[in-house]
Amino acid sequence: MPKLLKILLIFIALLAPGLLSYWIFFQPKPSLQRADIIHLEDNYSLKVQPIFDSKCVACHSCFNSPCQLNLTSFEGVSRGANLVNIYDFPKLKARKPTRLYTDAHSVEQWRELGFFPVTEGNQSLLSFMISQPKGIESGLQEKFDSEYSRVCIDSTKHRAVEKFLKANPAGRMPFGFPGLESDEISTIQSWLRDGAKGPSLSAMEERLREQPDLKPQIEEWEKFFNRKDLKSRIASRYLFEHLFLADVFFEDQPKIYFKLVRSRTHKGEIKEIGTDFPFAAIDGKFFYRLRPVTNTLVHKSNIPFSFSETKREEWEKDFFQSKWTPKEMPPYGNPGGNPFETFKDIPVESRYNLFLNNAHYFVMTFIKGPVCRGQTALNVINDHFWVLFLDPKRDPLVQSEKIYKQVAAQTQFPSEIGSSFSPLIDFRDNYWKSVRTKFDFLKGKPPLDLNALWNGDKKNLNATLTVFRHFDSAHVLNGLRGQTPKTVWVLDYHVFESIYYNLSAGYNVFGPLLHQLNSRLYMEVSRIASEDLFLSFLPQKDRLPLRGRWSQPTPKEKESVLKELADLISGDAKEKLSKEYSYEGSQIATAIKYESQNPKVEFLNLLAKKHYAKAQTEPRAEISHPLAHLRDLPAEIVSELPDTILVGVEDHSGLDVWTLIHNKDHFNVAMLLFEDERRNPAGDNLDIIQGVATSYVNLFIVLKKEGLKKFVEEFEALKGSGELAGFLKKYGVSRKDQNFWKVYQKFSSQTLNPVSNERGLLDLNRYSQSPL
Predict the structure, then answer these.
(1) Where are the alpha helices (DSSP H) in 321-392?
(2) Could you give the domains of the chain?
């Protein structure tokens, strides 16, 4: 089939209304009180924001806030709401971005961007929604889907109210949960009557920046980034483009976060410059500043990154004092979106070391970065996999200037392409050519062995990572967690940097459908390349058979007419792997001597035993805990479970939290659509992870320690989905439980990850839709 016709057919199929509809529709106190940290004393901060934090921010935060109403701060409340759902991708042109704190700086500017007030008028929308409609206790509504079936209301006029209540007869806020207490409603309504006033953002930021224990560190770091010579400016630019998503903190103040931003001002009040991408051009001078984070923290968007003296010394050596001499500042804008060209003068090993030493952070940016809901990119990865890293001493781009230049010339990014349709296939083909170039290089090098994988001197916990995908969200943890996964990735510098500029630095959540599609196709190549590099450590005879088992064709009996049509246009999973993405590592030698019939598991066991430290692999507590027995539940039961369940075991010392994670198996993850048809429920399994291992909880379960054994025994004895439903109803915390918010606050207070400093309130948009 001619390529142009093939492209046209794909375009028609993707934009056909029926197909798009299928994709869209089938597819104690909060952990951090900002008023305490900033020492605020105004009425809003002391009385109103704590109510929002305890019962409203669970849904109204980040880009997936219903109707874009963000209640994590006074700025979000005064901005108001918007009828546009960010995830309804515009087909041809990008939308104007609506990032809080960045894309508008006054109520008037937000009104120009289509936001309407929720705090104004005698009967404000906020007051009406928390007090007038009937709630979940009325029994008028069976399902509560705040994320995918939204009906926004923009006024309290009769027609608007009638439309909203027709869709949501029990639509009082908090939506689908117990309502606010009468005194909480009175507090909010009193604040509204008094003019809905709140704290000054600039005053809050100044108060934080002027704190005696913070001010010297802020000044030292801003001085570090704002040196004037060309070499330093390029080095700072590289670091900024890789840190702009970070919630920066100092090690002696782990609860206070900052954003590294570009500002018009060098001193005093920060005037952040909003751009679509961190490499976008700016007219006139700008300065790198550390802007305090003043809103309530939510777990789904908290991306911690520590600034320490050790790190500054390391970057000084690797980026500012290392031997490289630039001739001119590389271009900004779309031409600057290819890091392999833009930063080619900076030593490759220095760049790769930045990724390796902070791998957990960078993978978090893929998951939590510009987008809070990522099924477009996430349906190209499996539900559970481990991530390892090629050692710099074996990395093709680090070791060969010739290979680096070839790969840089072959690599394009979706951000460079923008909304253009014509390069849709070419950029993907070019990316695969760059993968082939690297594999050809490895063929002529010494055989791969254990030492070809970076282990961080057996000290750095970033050497091994685990990713859990929960449909359209994901979570990353240090270590090799859970049962042995079906697939494993080995990232090299090229793919690691490429994913970052695809999903983080170069991803535009406000971009058109084709931008989202390009990003998804790009991510598919990244996954296959990383899995193929892992396979190259195994015996040569086992590589292709295992690769085939990882991506099987969908059984004929599961295929719909639409799925068969799509296969005719773009090829099924087997055809993709044999034609478009043929395995290039057959001739790469391995030095590892295998003895078993399962070389994948044998290799992973060797790594855990000889190459990595115990702290870099699975914690023993997850193997020995009574809940670990649930890992052996049959797939028939596991396949009916929600994605994530948080189990809290109570005793005299507090709440011990565990996450039950349902890993869904797929025949393949080779298509943008038809996920249900590609599912293989017989391969599903359950992992038990200590602590909070999700931002989006589907169900809470609270147990007394003395009742844990009985819970496990009853779970193990279940037979069929009917018994499971009754079991979850017995133990699960219902949406309508009058103690629900106390339970929510207990779990949210336990989200701190001591390794990463990740924390924040949990999201409830995906909590079990039925009241149980």
Answers:
(1) 339-342, 348-357, 359-368, 375-378
(2) 32-193 (no CATH), 201-346 (no CATH), 372-492+501-618 (no CATH), 621-748 (3.30.1050)
